[in-house]
UniProtKB/TrEMBL annotation, chain A:
Keyword line: Antiport, Cell membrane, Hydrogen ion transport, Ion transport, Membrane, Sodium, Sodium transport, Transmembrane, Transmembrane helix, Transport
Domain MrpA C-terminal/MbhE residues, every copy: 711-789
Family: Belongs to the CPA3 antiporters (TC 2.A.63) subunit A family.
Name listed for the protein in its UniProt record: Cation:proton antiporter
Segments forming domain MrpA C-terminal/MbhD: 635-698
NADH-Ubiquinone oxidoreductase (complex I) chain 5 N-terminal domain: residues covered: 64-105
Domain NADH:quinone oxidoreductase/Mrp antiporter transmembrane, first and last residues per copy: 128-419
Presence of keyword Transmembrane helix: yes
TrEMBL record, chain B:
Entry membrane topology: Multi-pass membrane protein
Domain of life from the UniProt record: Bacteria
Species the sequence originates in: Sporosarcina ureae
Keywords carried by this UniProt record: Cell membrane, Membrane, Transmembrane, Transmembrane helix
Database matches in InterPro entries: CPA3_antiporter_subunitC, NUOK/Mnh_C1-like
Entry keyword annotation includes Membrane: yes
Family: Belongs to the CPA3 antiporters (TC 2.A.63) subunit C family.
Protein name, UniProt field: Cation:proton antiporter
Length: 802, 113
């Protein structure tokens, strides 16, 4: 089977969702949608045995073969891991949403359509081998995220958050497209696999570093790295199932995926190692530090997500060092990154769901109003505690294992001797350790402030009680996974992590089993990780206990200096500035616009005539000059002059009539009797019409036109005149294809049985044209009648914005 | 003859564009009238002004004028009349409502920017 088509299964299913929503009122639409991720999860599981042995599967569907663009589904360890996350967490989130989203109040049709679009987009991102379709799906995730954040579009904050995330991630996406184009120029292919195969050659190409930076911009904006993370806290306006799914488990990890996928190409560059590790660590620290400042439960989780993404990013950067140093401790980092990615998806997904439950059952997410919920919500508390302790890095939860591996990797960094790491390397473990302390603090802050402590139920909008069991199933499953993984880390390692590590570093490992890492909870008293973890717990507890004392420190940072303020200023500035620019040339005056058009037209055509040597003057083809013709020309010029310079309306109108009559005379001279007759009639009627209307129009006035205005008008109109003259001369002088006239002359008697060729063309050969011309005239007549007869009552001006 | 007519067409277009760019609405309408005359002559000249007889098939006559431009112009004359009529009436109504024929004042208001 062509499994590439499965990427499109959710979006095809999305077509049916509105019908299910409209027609089947009794059943929550989510139950139907749940089938999709479940089926996909089951199907993709069947790839596990193949991928576990280091194999891969490819399925391709041509899209634009002439440009080398195809939908290619490439499943190896890395893409399978993400695919399982997307479909697995997706199933749990849909199940959760069935209980979270009210069937009566919410527009479930749209909600599930957006969610399914996202599922297709995300599957496309992680499976595409073609960079162009990867980009397509990448932007589609941004768009579906925009729609989901703005789901409650009546709220200002939702719309603001949606736009912000869209601006930042789409900016990153465009940068990434630049990187892909540069890569395709250097490697002459859109295929990621083929690019990886040429990795050593690409390293010395001139655009290599530029492509690297552009690609990282894409990854950093999507994965909310410093300083682009500011969109993620605002994205929390989305319904909680969306936050759990897109903004913690899957979409924000697309950047991680991108970095992991392109490590084989860029990983050996020092810029890559410095940027990915450095920005990752900075984000880790920044996010964990500011998480304690937040008072909204979801905002705490958002900052913690930012910080955890930074952690994974820094591990991927450190993992790339293994291209330079073969020491086992560096190979460790990539393994830890993948491991932590899985753990994070599990515990953070669960925590988001708990935050949603608290919001749902108490009516608030403000941590200052919450407290003592443990007694009424014991199951939620248990799940939250498991998630938080895993996030803090304590045993017996999966987070402990990957967190300790992270600390070990950072300690190992100082032993790396290339690229100035021997001088600056010591900073890495220090920053990592401090960030871990804050991570511990905010984990405690999140769970203890909410569930333990004083009961403040009277401040809550609703009387709190435990959530319905259906809502608890998904977070409970995730909590079980968190504990389970702690006891069987090496099983997960063998089935999922090692194949993924091999996909990230294909040159280092021949098969997944060659990744020689065995995860242990206990390394003995000599291990650095153990002592660092103990330090984290001790200092973290101290910090937590003293939160009221040092939390005011956050106020030192003035609002004006925050990144959010910078973003707002940039948006306002660009809006104002661009508005001003467009006002410069969009004056609202018709004259200005006509000037642009006429000037552009004449300049372009004259330029093309001479650049392309299209101007040809063939004097021999001209007919002889006749006396009547010349006299008539003089009359015509004089009349035109009168029209332009006349001071009174009457003179101008009569002169216009004069122009019309001399044109009619030209028709006589050039053997066109039908035209002459028509022109005479029409001209007479026109003049009569002008005279009728002029009674109602004011006297001619220049309305204060300046000399300069007139000069500009004259120059532009002269250039149009010259242009038309040149076109007339050269189009007469050269006929590229023979005229169809000969056909009419030959067949007018045999085919149409007529003698007057002009008339026969109009009513026979081009009969339909004439028919529609009559229709146009009829419409013009109705318009004239309507404008004269109808009187619209004067209403108050309506403003559509109000 | 084509040469003279080409220049004549150029003059017609120059005058037409000059009038269209002016601020008085009546002049704009006069300008469009000139523009259509210029366009008709342009079509005629591009086709060629040769031929000694009108394009009517009569025994013995072979050298007649090109019928194709004439058919096109015939359509154009009628349509341009329709355009002029609509514009005139529109100007009349516009002046009736707004009491001005200054194009610069007829640019909407800031409310609808």
């Amino acid at each position: 089977m062509e499994f590439v088509l499965l990427i499109f299964l959710p979006v095809i299913f999305a077509l049916l969702v509105p019908f299910a929503y409209k027609k089947i009122k009794g059943i929550h639409t989510g139950w139907f949608v749940l089938v999709v991720p479940l089926v996909l999860f089951g199907y993709y599981l069947s790839f596990l045995p193949l991928v576990m042995d280091g194999g891969h599967a490819i399925s391709e569907m041509k899209w634009i073969p002439s440009l080398g663009i195809a939908f290619t589904s490439y499943i190896d360890g890395l893409s399978l891991l993400f695919t399982l996350l997307i479909t697995g967490i997706g199933s749990l989130v849909v199940l959760y949403s069935v209980f979270y989203m009210d069937r009566e109040k919410e527009d479930l049709g749209s909600f599930y359509v957006y969610l399914l679009i996202f599922m297709t987009a995300m599957l496309g991102v992680v499976q595409s081998d073609n960079t162009m379709t990867l980009y397509l799906f990448w932007e589609l995730t941004s768009i579906s995220s925009f729609l989901l954040i703005g789901f409650w579009y009546t709220k200002d904050k939702s719309r603001f958050g949606a736009l912000k995330s869209m601006m930042i991630t789409v900016f990153g996406g465009l940068m990434m497209l630049g990187a892909f184009i540069l890569l395709s120029i250097m490697g002459e292919t859109f295929s990621v696999r083929e690019l990886i195969a040429q990795a050593p050659d690409l390293l010395n190409q001139p655009y290599f570093t530029l492509a690297l930076v552009l690609l990282l911009l894409g990854a950093f904006t999507k994965s909310a790295q410093f300083p682009f993370y500011i969109w993620l806290p605002d994205a929390m306006e989305a319904p909680t199932p969306v936050s759990a799914y897109l903004h913690s488990a899957t979409m924000v990890k697309a950047g991680i995926y991108l970095v992991a996928r392109f490590t084989p190409i860029f990983g050996s560059a020092s810029t890559w190692i410095w940027l990915v590790t450095g920005i990752g660590l900075l984000t880790l620290f920044w996010g964990s530090f500011f998480a304690v400042k937040q008072t909204d439960l979801k905002a705490i989780l958002a900052f913690s997500t930012v910080s955890q993404l930074g952690l994974i990013m820094s591990l991927l950067g450190a993992g790339a060092i293994s291209y330079h140093a073969t020491a086992a401790m560096f190979g460790f980092a990539t393994y830890a990154a993948i491991f932590h990615l899985i753990n994070h998806a599990a515990f953070k997904g669960g925590l988001f769901m708990i935050a949603g439950i608290i919001d749902h059952e108490t009516g608030t997410r403000d941590i200052r109003k919450l407290g003592g919920l443990m007694s009424v919500m014991p199951i939620s508390f248990t799940v939250a505690a498991i998630g938080s302790l895993s996030m803090a890095g304590l045993p017996p939860f999966s987070g402990f294992l990957s967190k300790e591996m992270f600390l070990e990797s950072m300690v190992a960094l100082q032993h790396f001797e290339l690229f100035n790491f021997d001088t600056w390397g010591i900073l890495f473990p220090i920053v990592a350790w401090i960030a871990s302390v804050f991570t511990f603090t905010y984990s405690m802050y999140f769970v203890l402030k909410t569930f333990i402590g004083q009961k403040k139920f009277d401040q809550l909008p609703k009387q709190p009680h435990e959530a319905p069991i259906g809502m608890l199933i998904s977070p409970m499953i995730l909590a079980t996974i968190v504990i389970l993984v702690f006891f069987i880390p090496n099983v997960i390692g063998k089935w999922i992590i090692k194949p993924a590590v091999m996909a990230v570093q294909p040159t280092l490992y021949a098969s997944p089993s060659a990744v020689d890492i065995h995860v242990k909870a206990w390394h003995g008293f000599g291990a650095a990780g153990l002592w660092l973890t103990i330090g984290v717990v001790v200092f973290g507890t101290l910090l937590y206990l003293t939160i009221p004392k040092w939390q005011p420190l956050y106020r030192i940072q003035p609002d004006k200096l925050s990144l959010n303020n910078g973003y707002d200023a940039m948006m306002r500035g660009s809006e104002k500035g661009l508005n001003r620019v467009s006002r410069l040339y969009m004056t609202g005056k018709i004259r200005t616009y006509l000037l642009y058009m006429f000037a552009f037209m004449s300049v372009t055509i004259i330029a093309i005539l001479f650049i392309k040597d299209a101007f040809v003057l063939d004097m021999n083809s001209f007919t002889a000059i006749t006396l009547y013709g010349s006299l008539n020309a003089i009359v015509l010029i004089l009349s035109v002059g009168f029209v332009v310079f006349a001071k009174s309306r009457l003179a101008a109108i009569i002169a216009l009539g004069g122009v019309g009559y001399s044109v009619a005379l030209f028709f006589v001279i050039f053997k066109a009797p039908d035209l002459a007759l028509t022109q005479l009639v029409i001209e007479t009627v026109s003049v009569a019409l002008f005279l009728l209307a002029f009674k109602h129009l004011p006297a001619l006035s220049t309305h204060g036109e300046t000399k300069r205005n007139k000069m500009v008008n004259l120059i532009v109109s002269l250039s149009v005149g010259v242009m038309v003259t040149l076109v007339a001369l050269s189009s007469h002088s050269q006929k590229m294809i023979p005229s169809i006239s000969q056909y009419y002359k030959d067949t007018v008697e045999t085919e149409a049985a007529g003698g007057n060729i002009v008339n026969v063309i109009l009513v026979d050969y081009r009969g339909f044209d004439t028919f529609f011309e009559i229709a146009v005239l009829a419409i013009a007549g109705i318009a004239v009648l309507g404008m004269i007869r109808l009187r619209v009552s004067r209403k108050e001006p309506t403003d559509e914005n109000k | 003859m084509e040469f003279i007519l080409s220049i004549l067409i150029g003059i017609l277009f120059t005058a037409a564009v000059y009038l269209i760019l002016s601020r008085s609405l009546l002049k704009v309408i006069l300008g469009t009238g000139l523009l259509s005359h210029g366009a008709h002559l342009l079509i005629l000249t591009m086709g060629g002004l040769g031929g000694t007889a009108p394009p009517v098939v009569i025994d013995g006559v072979t050298d007649f004028a090109d019928p194709l431009p004439q058919a096109l112009i015939l359509t154009a004359i009628v349509i341009s009349f329709g355009v002029t009529a609509v514009m005139l009436v529109m100007a009349y109504r516009m002046y009736d409502v707004h009491r001005t024929d200054n194009m610069n004042e007829l640019r909407g208001n800031d409310e609808h920017d």
